[in-house]
TrEMBL record:
Gene3D superfamilies: HIT-like. Transmembrane segments: none annotated. A motif (Histidine triad motif) lies at residues 99-103. SUPFAM superfamilies: HIT-like. One of its GO terms (molecular function) is catalytic activity. It holds the Pfam family HIT. Residues 6-115 form the HIT domain. The active site is at residue 101. This is Histidine triad nucleotide-binding protein. Coiled coil: none annotated.
Length: 115
């Protein structure tokens, strides 16, 4: 728990969120500003800054975050249409919250990736 981290505070129940999936080690909740009909954020409950740091510190947990993304997509009915998973990391990515999170996006054709 990092006191000044928004997503640690969501894990602690101090800030409300619409939770759609939870395991012992991961939490998934709807993005407050959805960019697609389905836009869910998947996080490890313990604090890691970004995907690079998580992958080195705890690759098993990184795998569990990805498994949670797949479970969210299935639970949201994205099996047929498919979905996109994005980790923003570092200044060029536009990462704004420095608790690693996967964006799970779907529910419509998403178009090409940005270059
Ligand atoms: P980033 O740009 O860091 O990859 O994405 C951060 C995401 O967190 C954004 O899509 C933003 O809409 C979302 N977000 C920011 N504050 C909150 C919040 O208080 N609750 C929820 N559910 N999402 C948030
Ligand atoms: Zn945190």
């Amino acid at each position: 728990m990092t006191n000044d981290c928004l997503f640690c505070r969501i894990v602690a129940g101090e800030i409300p969120a619409t939770v759609v999936h939870e395991t012992d080690e991961t939490l998934a909740f709807r993005d407050i500003g959805p960019k697609a009909p389905v836009h869910v954020l998947v996080i490890p409950k313990v604090h890691h800054t970004d995907v690079s740091e998580l992958a080195v510190a705890d690759p098993g947990l990184a795998g569990k975050v990805l498994a949670a993304c797949a479970a969210v997509a299935a639970g949201e009915g994205l099996g047929e249409g498919g979905f996109r998973v994005i980790f923003n990391s570092g200044p060029h990515s536009g990462q704004e919250v420095f608790h690693v999170h996967a964006h799970v996006l779907g529910g419509k054709p998403l178009g090409p990736m940005v270059s």
